């Protein structure tokens, strides 16, 4: 039942904003690279968030990024010491990305 | 990229099958990856129980990431420092502090195991670098974690858990218990990517969801103020378990009890005021002013407490609440200079330590005026006006304080004379502070194995355990700060107790 309502809402929203149009840059990058809905969402028509395991199909297990120093610590936001964070916790794709770390920390990091 | 048409969208209405639904058989499900959940999960896997750990947030750790140090008595660390506090002392202290309104046998078991849990954590690689107290000549029971944070503890528990085969699901809140024939036999959960899970738990379900401090509706329902700031995680501790207690007929106790601290910059997120003692910040230094034992004034322009009670949060929190959840810490230019050159007299937890010289104070005074939680004036009248309090009453408060300073006697409250200071060198400053709440402390009554007891007959609900700060019967009406670090210690120990009981049961 929960799924049905969210799908129905999604349908309404899509109608209202006259999709397809992308809110986020990442979506555009993926579209330009011929990535389909299925590739990220597992279905031809998205009913849920992109799956981390599907991100990894193309991007591999670990994307190397620049580390930085905070006090005595070396920080690599792709190697969280607080468990495995799903890709889409930060990379929102259809809306602007946000650094989830900054719920608690104050890092200045630009992310795609 | 396919175009999304209305037709496709509508066709989805029959497409709930797109979402995968997994069923898994395990021994134990632990719900919540905070202090108690991490310990329960690590202990369960260590005992050979197939265990899954569910966490609602994107990261693991909950409030445990914020813990500075944890209680224990009769540890090797204490022995090496000649600290002679005993288990018997701690037990009697806690029973007396709470007037017996707590679960004695469980308290005894926890205190008696507290030293063993320090060793258990160390075996898993957790490090402690000091045993501290927040009080002058206080009881040194507070075993400080690396960097004064629970981060390493959470990491080491995670490593032990996953190395032994445990699986963690983040962004996967438990939504329902499977409750059949008066027994809990599983958990239903849904993850952030839309998959649903049914976990059948042969041994038991350990609820470790950390109470309901992030849920204003529930705070109201149980009589806790909702206008306090919140320290720690801003989401996650949403009281998801309350409905499970209702469903299973659990006996609840202490639902109104919570831990509040009366000293945070007014209207500002308290998480900005936490720091490492060696890396203090403008905001943590400024928050420490709210704990100094000099002059605190309520909205009526009068003092309301012996200010040297500052570290006793269970006294200052309610006192601040009583005067309307806001007060001013007032000081003059002599005190400003003193705090810069001689250092502060009372710690702001272990975030800014006693004796710390406030090198960022002048910068903070500027920031505070800009942000609106600090006022400054060359006259007492001017200060009172900026504070928005009655000028005549405040003037009298200052006149009195200056007399107390000359005589070395606080005529209003029995404050130690070394903290009785004058207010006579302009400019004068007032920092505005308010209460914040860290955690709620009520929940179901349990037996000493952490099994949830039913209201109707005080018998365990089969298969259902509760651990951590949502266990009832650990506190009477407030947190006991004289056993420093007891919240996390109880959480970690109770997590172990539940896992041990399930292991024991499953051997039968
Ligand atoms: C700023 C701060 C400083 C502190 N300092 C100390 C200290 O120095 N010493 C001390 O002893 N104590 C301290 N405490 C208290 C200590 O952190 C808590 O007592 C302890 O973490 C409680 O453990 P818990 O497992 O019950 O809850 P938490 O550690 O809060 O964990 C609960 C977890 O459950 C998750 N959850 C909730 N609902 C669900 C659901 N439906 N499904 C899955 N997961 C769910 C939450 O997201 C959270 O991660 C401090 C607390 C704060 C906030």
Automatic annotation (TrEMBL), chain B:
Keyword Iron-sulfur: no
Domain FAD-dependent oxidoreductase 2 FAD-binding: 27-476
GO BP of this protein: steroid metabolic process
Classification via InterPro entries: FAD-dep_OxRdtase_2_FAD-bd, FAD-oxidoreductase_2, FAD/NAD-bd_sf, Succ_DH/fumarate_Rdtase_cat_sf
Pfam families found in the cross-reference section: FAD_binding_2
Keywords carried by this UniProt record: FAD, Flavoprotein, Oxidoreductase, Signal
GO molecular function, one term: oxidoreductase activity
The keyword RNA-binding belongs to this UniProt entry's keyword annotation: no
Signal peptide: 1-19
Name of the protein in question: FAD-dependent oxidoreductase
């Amino acid at each position: 039942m929960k799924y049905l309502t969210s799908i129905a809402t999604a349908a309404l929203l899509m109608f209202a904003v006259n999709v397809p149009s992308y809110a986020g840059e990442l979506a555009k990058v993926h579209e330009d690279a011929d990535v389909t809905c299925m590739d990220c969402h597992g279905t031809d028509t998205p009913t849920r968030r992109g799956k981390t395991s599907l991100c990894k199909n193309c991007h591999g297990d670990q994307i190397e990024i620049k580390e930085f120093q905070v006090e005595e610590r070396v920080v690599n936001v792709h190697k969280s010491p607080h468990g495995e964070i799903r890709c889409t916790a930060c990379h929102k794709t259809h809306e602007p990305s946000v650094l989830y770390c900054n719920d608690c920390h104050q890092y200045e990091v630009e992310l795609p | 990229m396919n175009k999304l048409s209305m037709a496709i969208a509508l066709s989805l209405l029959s497409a709930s099958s797109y979402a995968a639904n997994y069923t898994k058989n395990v021994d134990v499900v632990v719900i919540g990856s905070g202090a108690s959940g991490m310990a329960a999960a690590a202990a369960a896997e260590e005992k050979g129980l197939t265990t899954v750990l569910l966490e609602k947030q994107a990261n693991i750790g909950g409030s445990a990431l914020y813990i500075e140090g944890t209680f224990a008595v009769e540890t090797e660390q204490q022995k090496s420092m000649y600290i002679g506090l005993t288990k018997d002392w701690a037990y009697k202290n806690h029973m007396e502090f709470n007037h017996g309104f707590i679960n004695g046998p469980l308290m005894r078991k926890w205190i008696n195991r507290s030293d063993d849990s320090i060793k258990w954590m160390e075996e898993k690689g957790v490090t402690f670098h000091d045993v501290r107290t927040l009080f002058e000549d206080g009881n040194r029971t507070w075993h400080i974690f690396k960097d004064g944070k629970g981060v390493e503890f959470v990491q080491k528990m995670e490593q032990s858990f996953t190395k032994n085969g445990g699986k963690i699901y983040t962004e996967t809140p438990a939504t329902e218990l499977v409750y059949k024939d008066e027994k809990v036999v599983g958990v239903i959960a849904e993850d952030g990517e839309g998959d649903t899970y049914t976990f059948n738990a042969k041994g038991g379900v350990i609820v470790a969801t950390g109470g309901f401090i992030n849920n204003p509706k529930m705070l109201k329902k149980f009589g806790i103020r909702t206008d306090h700031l919140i320290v720690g995680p801003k989401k996650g501790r949403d009281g998801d378990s309350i409905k499970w207690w209702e469903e299973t007929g659990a006996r609840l106790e202490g639902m109104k009890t919570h831990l509040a601290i009366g000293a945070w910059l007014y209207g500002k997120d308290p998480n900005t005021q936490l720091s490492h003692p060696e890396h203090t910040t403008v905001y943590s230094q400024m928050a420490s002013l709210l704990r100094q034992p000099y002059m605190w004034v309520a909205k009526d322009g009068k003092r309301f407490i012996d200010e040297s009670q500052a570290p006793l949060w269970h006294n200052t929190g309610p006192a601040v609440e009583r005067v309307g959840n806001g007060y001013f810490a007032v000081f003059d230019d002599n005190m400003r200079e003193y705090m810069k050159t001689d250092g502060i007299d009372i710690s702001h937890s272990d975030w800014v330590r006693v004796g710390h010289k406030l090198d960022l104070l002048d910068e903070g005074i500027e920031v505070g005026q800009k942000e609106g939680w600090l006022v400054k004036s060359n006259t007492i009248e001017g200060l009172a006006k900026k504070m928005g309090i009655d000028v005549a009453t405040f003037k009298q408060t200052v006149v009195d304080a200056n007399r107390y300073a000359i005589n070395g006697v606080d005529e209003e409250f029995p404050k130690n004379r070394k903290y009785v200071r004058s207010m006579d060198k302009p400019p004068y400053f007032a920092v505005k502070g308010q209460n914040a709440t860290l955690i709620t402390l009520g929940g179901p009554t349990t037996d000493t194995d952490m099994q949830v007891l039913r209201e109707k007959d005080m018998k365990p609900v089969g298969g259902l355990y509760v651990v951590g700060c949502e266990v009832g019967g650990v506190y009477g009406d407030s947190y006991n700060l004289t056993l420093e670090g007891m919240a996390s210690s109880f959480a970690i120990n109770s997590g172990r107790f539940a896992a041990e009981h399930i292991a024991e049961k499953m051997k039968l």
